[in-house]
Design brief:
Nucleotidyltransferase, domain 5; about 625 residues; five-stranded mixed beta sheet; GIY-YIG endonuclease; flat; alpha+beta
């Protein structure tokens, strides 16, 4: 009975967390078309839908009354995702692809194996036009897909009237009705030159690739002429043909007729953060997206390309084609119509493509116009939406952070917790040990107050002694310079770290500042809050705003410490490369780096470049030769 009650309480707690998550996401839905994916408590997609306006449609599930099926669906929803498209038609095609990919239990429509139709010019001695739902490698020319099957059929009928290719599956012995109607060139009875077939197939291809304006102008003229002659049925027929052309030629980007596997990248940056979106196109169909958001510290496009290369280092399964956005300088020149004039910008793009292609052995493109460019733009737009969603969530969370810090004081029995200083240590197998401190004031990060520490007295990976050294150095300075003391100190760890910090504060410095520790679980996530000496667990609810504030603090100090550690490790590697050269000591190493700026510049220097530093030609040659043996 106790176990049942515990399970019930856990389920209720999980439901409360899910409701809060959904409530936050509903407030951030965009005013755009797209698809949404509903998930259950296990993260399984149980329903896929499309919407002209995502905000209105998704919110409707959680407001008002529904029929029995929808009620059952809503009762199982614990989270949702969405993908923004540039039109409602794209949303329809994407919905079809997603349903076939995931087979959600609550979807009835589009679950079968039917696909959208294509218009095809067959690759035969006597080609013909047909509407098909299957793409096979038969060297035929495919155009589509077209979500409106009726419009596709009507357009084929129009093309049949304009271009009299054969209609029969097998050639008959004599001409048929289509010949008498002027819709077949009758290769069964008359010799047809290949040049005539080439002309017709080229014109049909031009029409289906967007060159239908000339035909539309002619149809418009004929329709108006028929109306003037009071031939209303003929005018209606011509009007219907115009409508069919418009419907079938509406552009979309969700499926491509070449059936290639593609990864399509887009990215957006704001406030020091980058969001990268990857759209996965398999067999020519867009079936999934993946978005990731992270802080970046260099040039945006360079960091984006670093992400791409790291992504494929970790994911060896490669597509047939990779589509990337063009570099920003080329994008600006393209917008101004000057791209062709700037060889440097174009060369930079070519270098990126060439280096990735040689490394991955996959075709890499940076399309600047056409269908492929549009899907890259779609990925970029989704990145912008996701990044905007992140910042709006942060704003909402920060509004709650002030209240969370006030409530945290109550949990810890303190008068106030306005200023929190948090510490985290970082080292890999004891190398380049560092520590970092972040400061949160009224529940918000105060980045000007962040501090970095190189560990000086501790040898090897000793977390307790590292904590002692850093706490001692920080609060000796607080006392000496009469700095503002925190209301609470947060350390990364449990009883041992808390005890080490309190020992230094109270027994060495005579400071009495509350210390709490954040204990992580097996997945390296914040799991428990501990405080006091001896330390005890504070029963803070996992779904509370107070717990979320502590989680943010721990994530931020960990990020800050890891970043600092990587910087130090990188510098150490540079120093070790120079230190390994005979004749180079600490003084000369510093002199070389100050003069040239980097190891790469030293490596590229000539013997003469070393003379201003009073380094002889022999030692200069030795430095260049030694660095040439090292990887760049």
């Amino acid at each position: 009975m106790d176990q049942q009650q515990t399970d019930r309480e856990l389920a209720e707690q999980q439901l409360a967390v899910a409701k809060e998550t959904i409530r936050n996401k509903l407030a951030l839905l965009p005013d755009q078309s797209g698809c949404y994916l509903m998930k259950n408590s296990e993260g399984v997609i149980i329903y896929v839908g499309k919407a002209k306006v995502l905000k209105n449609r998704v919110r409707s599930y959680f407001n008002g009354s529904h029929n029995g099926k929808t009620q059952r669906l809503v009762s199982e929803i614990r989270d949702f995702e969405f993908i923004v498209t540039s039109s409602n038609m794209e949303a329809l095609i994407l919905e079809c692809n997603l349903i076939k990919q995931y087979h959600p239990r609550y979807n009835v429509l589009l679950k079968d194996d039917k696909t959208f139709p294509y218009i095809k010019i067959t690759n035969e001695k006597h080609p013909k036009l047909e509407v098909t739902r299957r793409i096979i490698k038969d060297k035929g020319k495919y155009f589509g897909p077209y979500p409106n099957a009726y419009a596709a059929q009507q357009t084929k009928k129009l093309l049949d009237r304009l271009y009299p290719l054969r209609k029969c599956k097998t050639l008959p012995d004599k001409v048929c009705l289509y010949y008498h109607l002027g819709q077949c060139i009758a290769p069964c009875e008359f010799e047809v030159e290949q040049s005539e077939y080439d002309r017709m197939t080229q014109e049909i291809s031009r029409f289906l690739n967007g060159g239908q304006d000339v035909v539309k102008i002619e149809l418009q003229r004929k329709m108006e002429e028929a109306a003037e002659k009071l031939e209303f049925e003929r005018a209606k027929e011509l009007r219907d043909q115009l409508i069919a052309i418009d419907a079938v030629m509406e552009k979309q980007k969700i499926t491509m007729s070449d059936a290639l596997d593609r990864d399509i990248f887009g990215f957006a940056v704001d406030k020091g953060w980058m969001c990268v979106q990857i759209l996965y196109m398999r067999q020519g169909k867009l079936i999934e997206r993946h978005g990731t958001t992270f802080p970046y510290y260099g040039e945006a496009y360079d960091d984006f390309m670093t992400f791409v290369t790291q992504y494929y280092s970790d994911n060896p399964a490669l597509p047939k084609q990779i589509l990337l956005p063009i570099p920003p300088e080329l994008e600006q020149l393209e917008a101004e119509g000057k791209a062709a004039e700037d060889e440097a910008a174009a060369s930079h793009a070519d270098d990126v493509i060439a280096s990735l292609h040689s490394w991955l052995k996959v075709k890499v493109l940076m399309p600047q116009r056409g269908r492929k460019s549009e899907v890259v733009t779609m990925a970029t737009n989704n990145a912008k939406v996701m990044l905007d969603e992140k910042f709006r969530l942060i704003e909402r969370d920060e509004e709650r952070s002030v209240k969370a810090s006030e409530s945290l004081a109550d949990w810890l029995g303190l008068e106030q917790v306005r200023r929190i200083e948090a510490f985290d240590n970082s080292n890999i197998q004891g190398t380049n040990p560092v520590s970092a401190m972040v400061v949160f004031t009224d529940g918000k990060p105060d980045r000007k107050e962040y501090r970095k520490y190189k560990v000086k007295t501790v040898k090897g990976p000793d977390d307790y002694e590292t904590m002692r050294e850093v706490i001692r150095r920080r609060y000796e300075r607080v006392l000496k310079e009469e700095l503002a003391a925190p209301d609470l100190i947060v350390v990364d760890g449990g009883k041992g770290q808390i005890s080490a910090a309190l020992d230094v504060l109270e027994n060495e410095l005579g400071l009495y500042i509350p210390v709490c520790g954040l204990v992580k679980d097996a997945k390296h996530k914040t799991a428990q809050l501990m405080t006091g000496d001896p330390a005890e667990i504070v029963p803070l609810p996992r779904d509370s705003q107070e717990f979320y504030l502590l989680q943010r603090i721990q994530d931020e100090v960990h990020r800050f410490a890891i970043t600092f550690h990587r910087e130090q490790r990188g510098k150490s590697m540079v120093e070790s490369r120079l230190d390994s050269i005979p004749g180079i000591g600490e003084k000369r190493r510093k002199l070389l780096l100050k003069h040239f700026g980097s190891v790469k510049k030293i490596k590229e220097a000539s013997v003469e470049d070393f003379r201003p530093l009073s380094i002889g030609d022999k030692l200069a040659s030795q430095i260049i030769a030694s660095l040439a043996e090292e990887p760049s």
